[in-house]
């Protein structure tokens, strides 16, 4: 019985040697090749990038080989390459798209396969559905349009030295081109004048060398660690959150640095530690960045955010008469709004963002550089800048709780959520119910609650944003009691 391969929020992921095998990787590559040739754009070629995980080079070579077997030229990135850099290479070479082999911030045993279409942002559901249909046909031995049977090698999952030689592709290193592109977005002159000290933690990932190069060129005093390849990520997750950045926090405080910047495994997500050692959450940084774009750069335009991301962005947008485009969770939807609605900023509470003038793909390198630019320009810490924004627009308190249940409990709660429409919560009337992704309730004073079930496990994510810590705790407690959720 064939293993079902499906694309989740950001690609297909699996455990190496169990699900993520050479056979399955080659199968997915063939399905992508068929999709590209079905569109008639195969001759433009595909970029192939990979991160620092176990067997990364070998998996990338296998994918490249499958594409060349289907007469699709390949631009194979040399060395570990961040997801945003791989995506940028699509524009650089006018390619038909890219494949990025990465499991992003997932644990070390995982790897993943991400398809990035020609617009250089995450693939939308209608695209991944076509690829999944091709996978199913190939697994069943059915004809798949524009797929050539009997590929050149005819062998699967045995990437021997002589087989690597059959891979007719162009090796590329998009580092310099990406650096030049980002240098035109970031105000490096302002950073150069500020004399900042910055600590960088690329978390053993594909982003090693990028922040260091750009900040070093701008004259920042740097301290860098975890900047060597380690497929086990030091025994932790390559996920730059407040729970995983203790060493970065310590180095920032002990060294008197202005900022600490971290990247996840494929450098598409960011983590920021302020000068006082405080973790700046994405829900704090995104409004701060929007404020900077509006007031310092003088930009005007709408903002795109997911249903789970802070409404402080809405308050800023309303002040300047701009629209906010709310989408389901997943940067693919943000990227779509950036392309179609001319948004100047798109971001999500899980640590992804991009801005106008860049690709519609989340980029942790860009985020770290923008944070540095802000500190350099204002000559203030991010915490001080936040207080300035809070004074003007009010402070909101955001938190996500992950609550595990049994399978039986999950089914019962899902059934209850269908009719979940309380008239009030925490003493405030419920004014709106949004069900685009989970169940979201908006209250009279602007506070809100979102309940999202996991699609793969017995787990609920409860997001709350409130006007005070007391209200936040009260909302969390009431929702848990009503739905019988227990942490």
Characterization of this structure:
- The protein is α/β, with parallel strands linked by helices and 487 residues long.
- It has three domains: 12-174, Alpha-D-Glucose-1,6-Bisphosphate, subunit A, domain 3 (Alpha-D-Glucose-1,6-Bisphosphate, Chain A, domain 3, 3-Layer(aba) Sandwich); 185-393, Alpha-D-Glucose-1,6-Bisphosphate, Chain A, domain 3 (3-Layer(aba) Sandwich), CATH 3.40.120.10; 397-483, Alpha-D-phosphohexomutase, C-terminal domain (TATA-Binding Protein).
- It has 16 helices and 21 strands.
- The chain has helices spanning 22-39, 56-69, 83-93, 125-140, 161-164, 175-183, 188-194, 210-217, 246-255, 282-295, 312-319, 331-341, 364-378, 382-393, 407-417, 469-483, and strands at residues 12-15, 46-50, 74-77, 97-101, 110-117, 170-172, 197-201, 221-224, 259-263, 270-274, 279-280, 303-306, 324-327, 345-348, 352-355, 397-404, 424-425, 428-434, 439-443, 448-453, 459-466.
- Strand 20 (448-453) and strand 21 form a beta hairpin.
- Helix 1 (22-39) runs parallel beside helix 2, helix 1 crosses helix 4 and helix 10 (282-295) crosses helix 14 (382-393).
């Amino acid at each position: 019985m064939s293993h079902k391969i499906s694309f989740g929020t950001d690609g297909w992921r699996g455990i190496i040697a169990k699900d993520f095998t050479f056979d399955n990787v080659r199968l997915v590559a063939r399905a992508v090749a068929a999709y590209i040739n079905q569109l008639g754009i195969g001759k433009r070629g595909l970029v192939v990038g990979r991160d620092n995980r176990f067997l990364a080079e070998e998996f990338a070579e296998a994918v490249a080989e499958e594409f060349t077997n289907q007469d699709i030229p390949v631009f194979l990135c040399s060395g570990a390459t961040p997801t945003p850099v791989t995506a940028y290479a699509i524009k650089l070479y006018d390619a038909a798209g890219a494949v990025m082999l990465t499991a992003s911030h997932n644990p070390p045993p995982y790897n993943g396969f991400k398809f990035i279409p020609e617009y250089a942002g995450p693939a939308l559901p209608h695209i991944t559905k076509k690829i999944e249909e091709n996978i199913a046909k190939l697994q069943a031995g059915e004809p798949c349009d524009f797929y050539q049977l009997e590929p050149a090698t005819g062998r699967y999952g045995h990437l021997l030295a002589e087989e690597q030689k059959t891979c007719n592709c162009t090796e590329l290193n998009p580092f310099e081109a990406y650096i030049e592109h980002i240098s035109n977005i970031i105000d490096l002159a302002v950073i150069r004048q500020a004399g900042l000290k910055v600590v960088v933690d690329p978390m053993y990932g594909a982003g090693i060398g990028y922040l260091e190069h750009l900040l070093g060129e701008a004259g920042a005093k740097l301290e860098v660690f975890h900047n060597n390849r380690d497929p086990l990520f030091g025994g932790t997750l390559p996920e730059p959150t407040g729970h995983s950045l203790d060493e970065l926090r310590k180095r920032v405080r002990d060294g008197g640095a202005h900022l600490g910047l971290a990247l996840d495994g494929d450098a598409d997500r960011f983590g920021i530690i302020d000068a006082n050692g405080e973790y700046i959450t994405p829900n704090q940084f995104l409004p701060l960045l929007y404020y900077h774009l509006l007031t310092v750069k003088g930009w005007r335009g709408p903002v795109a955010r997911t249903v789970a991301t802070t409404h402080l962005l809405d308050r800023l947008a309303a002040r300047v008469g701009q629209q906010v485009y709310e989408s389901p969770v997943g940067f693919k939807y943000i990227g779509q709004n950036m392309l179609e609605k001319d948004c100047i900023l798109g971001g999500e509470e899980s640590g992804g963002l991009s801005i106008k003038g860049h690709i519609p793909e989340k980029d942790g390198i860009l985020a770290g550089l923008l944070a540095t630019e802000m500190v350099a320009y204002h000559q203030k810490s991010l915490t001080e800048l936040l207080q300035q924004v809070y004074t003007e627009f009010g402070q909101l308190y955001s938190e996500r709780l992950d609550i595990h249940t049994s399978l039986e409990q999950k089914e019962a709660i899902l059934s209850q959520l269908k009719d979940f429409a309380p008239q009030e919560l925490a003493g405030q009337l419920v004014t709106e119910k949004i069900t685009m992704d989970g169940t979201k309730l908006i209250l009279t004073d602007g506070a809100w609650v979102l309940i999202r079930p996991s699609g793969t496990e017995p787990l609920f994510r409860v997001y709350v944003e409130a006007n005070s810590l007391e209200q936040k705790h009260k909302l969390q407690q009431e929702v848990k009691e009503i739905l019988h959720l227990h942490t």
